[in-house]
Amino acid sequence: MCIIPLKRPECHEYGENILLSDIPDVKEFYEYKEGDHKLKLTFWGTRGSIPSPGKGREYYGGNTTCVELILKSGRQIIIDAGTGIRELGNNMLKNKMVVDNSYIIFTHFHWDHIQGLPFFVPAYIKGNIFTVMGVETDPDKLHEIISNQMKTPYFPVGLETMKTQMRFERLFKQNFEIDDVKISYTNTNHPQPTLAFRFEENGKTITFMTDCELNSQSSDAKGIDYFAEFSKNSDYLIVDAQFTENELPNRFGWGHSSNMDALKLAILSKSKNLILFHHDPSHDDNFIDKMVKDVLSKANEEKVNINCTAARDYDSIST
After folding, report:
1. Where are the extended beta strands (E) located within the chain?
2. What is the pTM of this model?
3. Segments forming the whole domain that contains residue 46
4. For the chain, which ranges sit under pLDDT 70?
């Protein structure tokens, strides 16, 4: 498994105590250089529900959901805008990244997936271009959902203050391409419509499936076999594993899975690497380590050869 630890981002001069008058136009930045021509995903936020910083959580981190994909072309796709997107934005500034039509795609609009957007500094920089898409397919409705959290009485700065060019567009059909990367999506089992995504490039596949109750008892829920087909042969399967088997019975219907559900999906889908995601805010580093250890022990019992780790803020995977 290729896991690339990143150094904790340094605070950029625009990243702390920011004043809108301090933000430069994009012309003041240099071009962002392409990476190593591989599909690369970086975790900027791996928690569910609420941010959970503090003692005992230094290793896995406490930011809510945000991941970044850099395609072979250098194109950036951001999935969800939990509090992790703030650190992503500071890192973009530090690396002098010019945003020429990056994508922000929302899996759904629960707080832990949108609450960081008002603190995403690149969105305040004139000349940057973002295309915003999500599970809500109507562009006007999507704009309304995103702008409402930045209105009184929730927030003092409105969406209109963001000087970037932000295009709200309808999500493409269920199978589409961005710069030769094949992307497909499907609805998960969650109380609010939620999407899982599959990214394929040069024969390599990353599946991102947050907020999904794989063992849902709802009459209209999709079964785990359906999700196994969607994620089949993934090089990396990133999946909701918020709870343990012991915790789950009191949380049926919440739209989340256990670490053992995640393992079952990985086995059925014949995925190579399983990454547990959407960590519960009550779980500290030791607890998450134990969840990974239990998965590996169970896989060994089943005589299944699979790698497993837990997503960690600022780590990257590369195909």
Report:
1. 3-4, 40-45, 66-70, 76-79, 100-106, 129-134, 165-168, 175-178, 181-187, 195-201, 204-209, 236-240, 273-277, 307-310, 316-318
2. 0.89
3. 3-10+33-318
4. 1-37
